[in-house]
């Protein structure tokens, strides 16, 4: 049996890739998963594959910021035992400042809203429920950033910046909750994946055209490493190449953070 301490997990971005793979790994380990995403056909497939005794689904677009509060309230009414929320949804776009005229700012803002702004609302509306579970009940926010939060890749600078922003925010949220007696049972866990073979890349025409639509480690290899991190109760879980970059970066940043 796994030592994953949560029993009812909302996985946002459970229709493909990392979210779907980790949702299925949770189900294999006896966790009830509520999968979230925009693609209804994928959500239906997820529930019919695993059965409604093991999972449920909620179709929602997290960029609809004004609807997040009522969506979270409705979801928690239906699933009052939620003890962890995995914030995993994300998109990746290119951004090229050598050709500013070619920049579509609406796509840039959509990336910021999906990868960062929505997370602030999701944290705001999920945290009261997790805090209210009380000190005897472990609870968690598990968020997926990226190795690119630590070292950016110029091809997709805004994506990297959203992941850096989220990484920084999680650092502060973790410290705030840990210092508050009514919140310290809520862990803030960050998963920092390396490049993984998912639709994040295979759906980007420029990458596909350059033969890079399937870059990275396999989803299975990543899921094994991420699950090992999640069951070890670490607060940050880098894997693959990211683990090496993270451990070097951390030696310096750890010293710096003590200055605050
Ligand atoms: N693959 C990698 O190399 C890699 C590396 C580092 C970090 N990551 C991060 O890992 C996370 C998962 O990505 P992935 O690689 O598994 O890519 P993916 O297969 O494209 O999955 C992205 C997930 O996010 C969901 N999503 C996107 N926009 C959404 C929205 N507006 N509302 C609700 N759900 C939304 C998608 O669901 P719908 O389309 O159905 O809405 C999908 O389930 C992302 O945060 C990504 O940045 C990936």
UniProtKB/TrEMBL annotation:
Keyword Transcription: no
InterPro entries per the UniProt record, alphabetical: NAD(P)-bd_dom_sf (IPR036291), Sc_DH/Rdtase_CS (IPR020904), SDR_fam (IPR002347)
Domain of life of the native organism: Eukaryota
Keywords carried by this UniProt record: NADP, Oxidoreductase
Entry keyword Membrane: no
Pfam family, one: adh_short
PANTHER family linked to this entry: 5-KETO-D-GLUCONATE 5-REDUCTASE, SHORT-CHAIN DEHYDROGENASE_OXIDOREDUCTASE
Family the UniProt entry places it in: Belongs to the short-chain dehydrogenases/reductases (SDR) family.
Name the record gives this protein: Uncharacterized protein
